[in-house]
Amino acid sequence: MDRRRFITNVVAGIAGPFAGVACAGAQGGAKPAPGGYGPLRPVRDLRDGKVRLHLPEGFKYRSFSAAGEKFSDGSTVPGRHDGMAAFSGPGGSTILIRNHEVNGTVGAFGDKNRAYDRMAGGGTSTLRVTRYGEVTKSAPSLNGTMMNCSGGPMAWRAWVSCEETVNGPDVADDFAGGDNARLTEKHGYIFEVPVGRAATARPIRSAGRFPHESAAFDPSSGAIYLTEDNFGFPSGFYRYLPPKHPVLAGKLLDGGRLQMLAVKGAERKDLSLGQEPGAAYATVWVDIDDPDPDFRGKPSNDEVVQAVGRQGRAQGAAIFSRLEGAVFHQGTVYFVSTQGGDTDPADPPPSGFGKGRGQVWAYETWSGRLKLVYESPRSSALDLPDNVTVSRRGTLVLCEDGEGANYLRGLTRAGGIFDFCRLEPIPDDPGAEFAGSTFGPGGHTLYVNVQAKQGRSIAIWGPWERGLF
């Protein structure tokens, strides 16, 4: 199919108004939702027999490509596995492009001659795998970037990887205490990683320098919707309007326009706070005049990390708490506010900006309506959601980043939530969490990452037809 026909078909096929999960629009409760797969039980990893996941009856999994192992080219797999997307590969295989959220001046993995910044340890890896998690080929695909948290799959067979930092030689050291003077390039950008080849490692500077988290592509307009995870400060919801539709261009071009979402008639509306069930807002977009500001005198990291967002809020842009995962589905961008909402008295408030246990929002791209889909009433229902993907049946898959047990949970089209998978606690690694969930071609396999001291990827398969994934 040629590129122009692809866009025409997408526009014709958009559902609305507020199709899928967004049509439910009610606050969540703690009771299990119909559509789950039953109780969870410990299941052994087919790779080595260890119990890493708790899953419903009939589901199996295999882990692969753990930190410290080798790529096919002999280089070492880095850690901090994070956001990921799946694409169809040759012979029924799956191509995975996977982020590595490595911070600090630890040096680039892979071929340093291809690195954006030889001192930065983040980036992406590309793997060819079977439906059962068997790796047939793997290699670094973007290196020398930093804190590559999440991103998003693009319709022209590419992954956009997002740096969740503003580190650089022009900025004072961040919370981790790394020596920014050793960096050779500014960070805080998005990068395109094509499926079939290594990335050019050229940042899209017009899409802003701020702590990016995820990217969701609207094939109708060509816009890239971007989330911001500014841990200690207000975050924003953005869109990048490229100078040419990326499907027609065959790639994402720099030189476009960055905008930030505002609630119509309510300047600096604080949406990080608890919302009424089904809360909905008309919205407008405000332009960011200087998406890639220059800094002199090495200002503090706290100042620089707010520089772009403050421009939007000065024009009335809305306030969110820690926007993380985002996914486009049927004309709607679903995105997650990790610490949005109210704090239940039984739950201690999390650290950082936002005192709730999580919200899921839906933005309807063609109407500009923003709607609350789900707000966690307590940590036992949903605890700090992070990455998100969507199943063929329209059910959202939420990765948790909670302070206790971490789950993969399903959020149904009826607005109910259910547990699908629990991470077996890892000794001496209480911060381990799920990230990067993505269904492979045809929906046979759910691929997901465990971000841990020794991160790894996992392929999960089983009787999906029994429930709502």
Description:
With 469 residues, this protein is mainly β. Helices cover 6% and strands 35% of the residues. The chain has four helices and 26 strands. The protein has a nine-stranded antiparallel sheet with strand order 11-12-13-14-15-19-18-17-16, covered by helices on one side. Strands 1-2-23-22-21-20 form a six-stranded antiparallel sheet, with no helix packed on it. Strand 11 and strand 12 form a beta hairpin. It starts with a helix and ends in an 8-residue tail after the last strand.
What is the fold's blueprint, element by element?
Layout (H helix, E strand, L loop, with lengths): L2 H11 L27 E4 L6 E5 L4 E5 L16 E8 L5 E7 L21 E8 L5 E11 L2 E7 L3 E6 L26 E5 L17 E6 L6 E5 L8 E5 L4 H4 L7 E7 L16 E8 L13 H4 L2 H8 L8 E7 L2 E6 L21 E6 L4 E7 L9 E6 L5 E5 L6 E5 L5 E7 L9 E7 L5 E7 L4 E6 L8
Antiparallel strand pairs: 1-2, 2-23, 3-26, 4-5, 5-6, 6-7, 8-9, 9-10, 11-12, 12-13, 13-14, 14-15, 15-19, 16-17, 17-18, 18-19, 20-21, 21-22, 22-23, 24-25, 25-26
Labels describing this entry:
mainly beta; 26 strands; 469 residues; single chain; nine-stranded antiparallel β-sheet; 4 helices; six-stranded antiparallel β-sheet
